[in-house]
Design goal:
CATH topology of the domain at 41-84: Arc Repressor Mutant, subunit A
CATH architecture of the domain at 41-84: Orthogonal Bundle
CATH class of the domain at 41-84: Mainly Alpha
Helix content: 25-40%
Order of helices and strands: HHH
Number of strands: 0
């Protein structure tokens, strides 16, 4: 029995990369641009979370409990995210409770 040996395939030619200008190396950071730098993946996720929290809190009228319910989060975790992203939430726009200053008590006869 004879075995035929096939020659190994030749590797594909590597594409040539553009040459860097003199004075630049591949490890240098790009110069800071005057426009806002692209945030990358984690920055984009953080930006999305911030905008989602702000929109939900606005929709809930500043009520953090309702916002947490709408997002499916525990209220304490929502509060932690609010602190982490430094979101300034106006106080909820609810009427004062009975017995608090400024509350109108019903008239009894």
């Amino acid at each position: 029995m004879t075995t035929l040996l096939m020659p190994a395939p030749e590797p594909a030619p590597r594409p040539s990369l553009p040459r860097l200008p003199k004075g630049l190396s591949a490890v240098e950071a790009p110069p800071a641009s005057p426009a806002r730098p692209l945030p990358g993946f984690h920055g984009a996720v953080s930006d999305f979370k911030r905008r989602l929290l702000e929109a939900t809190l606005t929709q809930a009228g500043g009520n953090r409990t309702r916002a947490a319910r709408a997002l499916g989060l525990q209220r304490t975790y929502l509060l932690r995210l609010i602190r982490e992203f430094e979101i300034h939430v106006p106080p909820p726009s609810v009427p004062p409770r009975r017995g608090e200053a400024g509350a109108v008590l019903p008239q009894t006869r």
